Input
Amino acid sequence: MHIAVAGNIGAGKTTLTRLLAKHFKWEPHFEDVVDNPYLDDFYHQMERWSFNLQIYFLNSRFRQVLQIRESGKKIIQDRTIYEDAHIFAPNLHAMGLMTNRDFQNYSSLFELMESLVAPPDMLIYLRSSIPNLVSQIHQRGREYENSISIDYLSRLNERYEAWITNYDKGKLLIIDVDNIDFVNNPEDLGTIINRIDAEINGLF
Output
């Protein structure tokens, strides 16, 4: 079984992935942020490093999805291969931070990869307002994220909403994270767990 958690920067994907993995005894697969050799450069010079960063993420997530399917285990994944292709890369292209040539090259590679992998059995989307995202990003204090603008986050949020509205690859669970605190409030986490339980029972 493959569960994936999607959402904008600062929505709480990694934290929720960790908590759900612990509760359900699932194996967590996290986004490669620490070892990513392009992330810091990208946030300082987006236009120069956008293509390199997106290819790195695409390669990393494609490898992850193949491993998930081959393992036969119950796995929860922090962010999906679809978010890069439907949200981050098109946003960089639309902002003029990725050339037409690079974007077409990237899109062609994604389409090939997508034809070879199966979507997650269930997608959990963390919906968040911009003020909540900004607060979370500041709280965790990653230095390379200090330069992320409100405009950039807003553009991503709009694309996330458009993508989720048309998502049809499998079961979808939308969690509004603005008014809940699943980290410090066990009841809020319990509510999410109950909703996931109900969806999973409907999977099989």
